[in-house]
Amino acid sequence: MNLFRKKAWRNLSKIGLAVLLAGQFSFSTAADVVVTNGVPNGAQSVAVTDLATTVVQQTAQIVRINTGLLRGTIENGIESYKGIPYAQPPVGELRWRPPQPPKAWEGVYDATEYKSQFAQNSDLGVFATAGGSEDALYLNVFVDEAARLKAEANNEKLPVFVWIHGGGLKVGASQDYNPTALAKEGAIVVTINYRLGIFGLFAHPAIDAEGHTIGNYGLMDQDMALTWVQENISQFGGDPQNVTLAGESSGGESVLTAMVNPHSAGKFQQVISMSGNTSTMTAAFTQNSIAEAEAKGIAFAEANGLKEATAEQLRSLSTEQILRTQTPYMLMTFMVDGEYIPERSMEAFKNGHFNKATLINGITKNEGNFFAGLPETLTGKPMDREGYMANLDWLVGLLGDRPGLKEAIMAEYPPEQYNSYGEAFAPLITDAWMASSMQRINDVLYDQIPVYAYVFADETAPSYLVTSFPQKASHTYELPYIFPGFNGSSIQSTALNPEQQKLANQMVQVWARAGEINKQSEWSIYDPKKQNYMTFTLPNSYMSENEFNEAHHTAFWNKVNSEYQAK
Question: What share of the chain in percent tops pLDDT 90?
Answer without folding.
Answer: 76
